[in-house]
Amino acid sequence: MQLLSGLLGLAAVASTTLAAVSKSSPPAANVSVLTTFSFPSWAENLAVRASGEILVSRLEAPAVYQIDPATGAATLVYAWDASAYKGCLGIAEMTTDVFYVITSAFIDDDFVKQSGINSIFEVDMRAFVIGSDGVVTTNATVRKLVDVPEADFLNGMAVLDDSYILVSDVYAGEIYKIDTATANYSVVISDPLMKFDYASHPPTNLGSNGIKIHDGCLYWTNTAAGFLARIAIDAGANPIGSSAIAVTGVPKADDFFIRSDGVAFICQNQMDTLSVAYLDNSASTPAYAIAGSNTSTILAGVTAAKFGRRSVDESTLYLSTSGALALAINGSVVVAGTISSIDTTLY
């Protein structure tokens, strides 16, 4: 019995040590490519349906596609008028199979609005059906929710509750709160840590980019400043107290995902890298690169991350990529956008 207790004690110590080591030096992730779009293509954001299919917004053209997680087959859900919108960005599910997606005004190479308008559309997938031959037999129902003419460049989206969504203006560094029942909206948060010029010499004019709500806080990436920040919010998304930097060392951070246990997976678009960080509610934490690099095309321009929702892929993190269209690898290499994945069991 004494020997057994000793062995169990050693096992517990080993397990604890392994956990500590993995957090300070997490292993590299193997990337599997599920879908490769035609070239050129920019898969900007993604959402996962309750049934498991992946919805992907495209930025180089205003469209949303559905990806079969088993086969990788891509099916067009809806395409907007390319003379009215540059592309699609943040997408999020409010109630089962009812999604909202951002359509973008026209921007220049520095992501500054040149013409047009940013809008939010509702995409109702409840009636959407694909036949056995891969052809859509019943379309999604798509309607415009609202135009936001004063916005510069709407980008990230998060669902607040069954009535409201939050949307980030990545250029202005502001968060809009939008009522999906009335289409009324207003700026609810404008914080110094959201501004691209928070960085002393900003490498880009993109500030608050991806946004997520986790554990009573709104989190956002600041692309120019290279961090993940947070601020406590009330039920109406009004800020409580001061903002703080939650994760450091993520240059060119784009969208991200925070797992329920506080593990954050951060997409660094123009670094072609996926990083992981272990959140601490009372302090900043570092990030660790686990996949891709700025000399590799495996995650070229990685933009966003979402977990699968089926029992077979609940630990699978799906990743969208832009093919490095925003910043070519080694100055010249661009590839087609993809949907890829990693297994997150070790993180």
From TrEMBL:
<keyword id="KW-0732">Signal</keyword>
<dbReference type="InterPro" id="IPR052998">
    <property type="entry name" value="Hetero-Diels-Alderase-like"/>
</dbReference>
<dbReference type="InterPro" id="IPR011042">
    <property type="entry name" value="6-blade_b-propeller_TolB-like"/>
</dbReference>
<protein>
    <recommendedName>
        <fullName>Six-bladed beta-propeller-like protein</fullName>
    </recommendedName>
</protein>
<feature type="signal peptide">
    <location>
        <begin position="1"/>
        <end position="19"/>
    </location>
</feature>
